[in-house]
Amino acid sequence: MELSKNRFHHLEVFVSHATHANAALTPLHRLKLARLVVDEGWPIARAAERYDVSWPTAKRWADRYRRLGPVGMNDASSRPHHSPNRVPAPVVRKIVHLRWKQRLGPVQIADRVGVAPSTVHKVLVRCRINRLTHLDRATGEPVRRYEHPYPGSLLHQDVKKLGNIPDGGGWRYVGRTQGGRNRVATPGKPRNAHGNPKVGTCFVHTVIDDYTRLAYAECHDDETAATAAAVLARAVAWFAVRGVTIERVLTDNGSCYRSFLWRDTCAELGITPKRTRPYRPQTNGKIERFHRTMADGWAFKKLYRSENARRAALAAWVHQYNHHRPHTAIGGSAPITRLTNLTDQYN
Questions:
Q1: Bridge partners, residue 327, by sequence
Q2: pTM more than 0.85
Q3: I need a surface site. Which of 64, 147, 204, 256 has the fewest CB within 10 A?
Q4: Are 339 and 244 in contact (CB under 8 A)?
């Protein structure tokens, strides 16, 4: 009785194993065939006829059952135990070194190493450095990507500087000649040492949640500590309305983020402030990439006749980015979809 239980247990295990489409026997029937021959003493020819396979096939599964038991009825890998033609490890290291440090392509590396370019390409693919976008430009090391596990675990905050648009439109759309005339005609602007009007700078303070990619942005005329701290406080309140509690914020090493006011504001909000390593904007890469998207989708998307018109369009674009624009980093969904139980998340 105990033997029958064990037999049925093994049968249940092997039912779940898949096999290739052209196999004459499934793992379950291989096991049944082998047990007829080994355990019950059937002749190999009779067992082969019972399961409609050739005599060598039946003998092969019976022999494998004797050696390995029920586990041997599964498909074995066809991968060779040894690969004598594989590229030697010292050559692989040299290929990887040339790719990392000098950013050379397969043809140039092949010329220096003495192997075929196709071989170099196979090595680069195997080491996952076949695309230069996988390597950090500053260090040549593979790009290390990260994502915090839930909303509010980390905010990214930064400032994007944009030149103000003179009345009548900027040079990107009306040309440099007309753009210069518009600068001169813009009233109420101070002059520089050459007598040319200074239209000023728009400081776009941006905040992004690391997990959801939800964005918050405000336009200001400065990037002082007071402005940056106030933006953070309003952003935290904006996220709180959506059920997100902020735990930490990551910034660069700008003066506004190194101030005592910034430190005290983070302490009042219960947020841990963090800063990137100097001269390493890649650490804050999510918000740097957002700035590029914002420039293409809002700042320079169309002709604005004044700076006020462009600033007025920011809120609508941020809403479209959060609620409707597919984001490739989160599977082509809008950032708001990473928050649940929001009644207005699809509006």
A1: 333
A2: no
A3: 147
A4: yes
